[in-house]
Specification:
single chain; 167 residues; alpha+beta; five-stranded antiparallel beta sheet
């Protein structure tokens, strides 16, 4: 056919590894897709992408959590958190810690991550004046305050990152 344009196909044999921030963004996007056919296909693709290299038990458990759909209430909270991250908005959390102490906190959300069996919101906690991680299953309620949050780079908030030494 004379009117058909062809595009050169990229070499797909070598892929660059995903950064921790990219994995966190993909994970959060998958978190609130639900259990429909697109979500299932996306989770399978992510699992295939991340499964290219051998993993230890922690990574294997984390991948299983990452690729399993969230229950409906947690998925609803993930949607609010994802919107707040995208819009750089402060969220108000009703949070129950490991000791069953409940606090109301304003958090500037930066990213979400999955580690082993749990999802976490990572951000700047205004109450504690520092970076904190909040387990999704301990977030009892979340709402956007509408207030603008300071823009923060996700890579500085992810665990297992080497920190630059002060001179």
């Amino acid at each position: 056919m004379a009117n058909v344009a062809t595009h050169p196909q990229p070499d797909t044999t070598a892929t660059a590894p995903l950064t921790a921030a990219e994995i966190a963004a993909l994970a959060l996007s998958l978190a609130h897709l639900g259990a429909g056919p697109q979500a299932t296909t996306a989770r399978r693709a992510l699992h295939t992408l991340l499964d290219a290299a051998p993993h230890d038990d922690v990574v294997t458990t984390t991948l299983a959590t990452l690729t399993t759909p969230l229950d409906a209430p947690t998925s609803d909270r993930a949607r609010v958190i994802a919107a707040a991250i995208t819009e750089h908005r402060v969220v108000r959390l009703c949070y129950g810690d490991a000791g069953a102490n409940v606090t109301i906190r304003e958090v500037e959300p930066v990213t979400c991550l999955v580690h082993r069996d749990h999802w976490y919101l990572v951000g700047w906690c205004r109450m504690r004046r520092g970076v904190r991680a909040f387990r999704f299953d301990r977030i009892l309620a979340v709402e956007s305050t509408g207030l603008l949050a300071r823009t923060r780079r996700a890579d500085g908030y992810l665990p297992f990152q080497k920190r630059k030494r002060a001179r």
